[in-house]
Model the fold of this input.
Amino acid sequence: MNEQLLLLSILRKGTGENIFPILIETPFNYDNESIKLLGINPQKANYNQIVFDRKDLEKVFLTQNNIMLSYLKPELNRQLALMENDKSFSNFVQKELLSAIPSGNFTLENIAEKLGVGTRTLQRNLAAENTCFKKQVQMAQKSMTFSYLKMDISTDEIAYLVGYTETNAFLRAFKTWTKKTLTEYKKEMERP
Done:
């Protein structure tokens, strides 16, 4: 329930528009205030689902006076500057992924189109560098995660910004990357 409200809040804040879902299914009971905020009466189901109109999901996030951008832009620029001297194909993919992941448009097809190549060409060029698209996505997500952990951003927001629709999936990926839970990692970083 909180994740649905967080997603709606991010969409509204990011686009600057009062977006409403067209369907919500959930096993939880929403109170009247939440139903008013959602603008729709949730339907009972054994699972969680929130559906938006495609035109609402394709709206561009605002960049002017966007508080989130003020947090993200310096770190994104720092990472891009570090990559300037590397002319490998995987580096070009990484640059595109760093920009595309927060928007959610980072499929193989999306990135190939941005690079002006076909999906097979993208895969062949990555294979020639002993990597693959999935590894490149994971590398970008991991890099972004460690950058965002230095900022005052919640775990749910980090998960969303690095392309995870569910916080639990993000936490499992984090443990795979570090062999530690996020809580363990943060405690280690706080030690002098």
